[in-house]
Amino acid sequence: MPQSSQRWPSYTATIERIVAHAADIRSLFLRLPDEVRFHFSPGQFISLSLPLAGQNVTRPYTLASSPDQPGPLEIVLNLVPGGLGSAYLFGRAVGEELTFTGPFGLFTLERRPDCEAIFVAERTAIAPIRPMIKRALTAPAGATMRLLYGAEHEAELIYQAEFRALATAHPEFQFAPLLPRQGESLSGFLLKEVRERYVEGDQRRDRQFYLCGVGSGVLEMRQLLRDNGYPRQQIHYEKW
Ligand SMILES: Cc1cc2nc3c(=O)[nH]c(=O)nc-3n(C[C@H](O)[C@H](O)[C@H](O)COP(=O)(O)OP(=O)(O)OC[C@H]3O[C@@H](n4cnc5c(N)ncnc54)[C@H](O)[C@@H]3O)c2cc1C
Fold it and tell me: Is 90 in a helix, a strand, or coil?
């Protein structure tokens, strides 16, 4: 049951399933008790309370599952070298419990059906984009939606089969998996792709962007788009 004595209700869920996508990327599927109702919008995150180094520390994790489909909540995370929170979560087993508050976050879908939508994500930062794309595809087909999804290694492009199937079923959705050349940085590579396609490629500035990634790459991409004529309200982003 949610504990509502605090400012935000707190939920306790059981880890129902763990899926390893790659050696250092996994999904945890979190099952809430049947009587608990938990509503969220595609793109929102939960704040997990983790017992680290003798105290409760919070870490945000985005819900990679879709609120439009029944089933457990899914978070997907990568093991961060030296990171306490991700190491703790990688040490968890099926049947254990996790406590969280939420949902939080304003990185959510504000789809304009007349406007091409470009989603850009790297590795696990696909988490908020995945339910957004699914939600957008429930609306009547509008302008094109394209996902540029990058990772250093093929195995880190998770949910690929699902995105390919969505692209086959929905002609308005295009999926571009992207792997940089050896030695090229992933964020630099994605920035170059966006520049070539949407800054230098044409004069159109009516696209919407949804960008998510780790570190300053997302901010550089946002700045590139703003500096080249895209209105700021058309650029939605979240930096981890
Ligand atoms: C709104 C929001 C949503 C998030 N959702 C997710 C999610 O769905 N999945 C997920 O894996 N992480 C997500 N994160 C990052 C997550 O909260 C933790 O920061 C991450 O797991 C590292 O925590 P840590 O305690 O292991 O390492 P820390 O010691 O807290 O972090 C070490 C460093 O790792 C960087 N970092 C953060 N995330 C990553 C990452 N994924 N890969 C590599 N380096 C990273 C941080 O910037 C920091 O500099 C999200 C962050 C934010 C702000």
Answer: helix
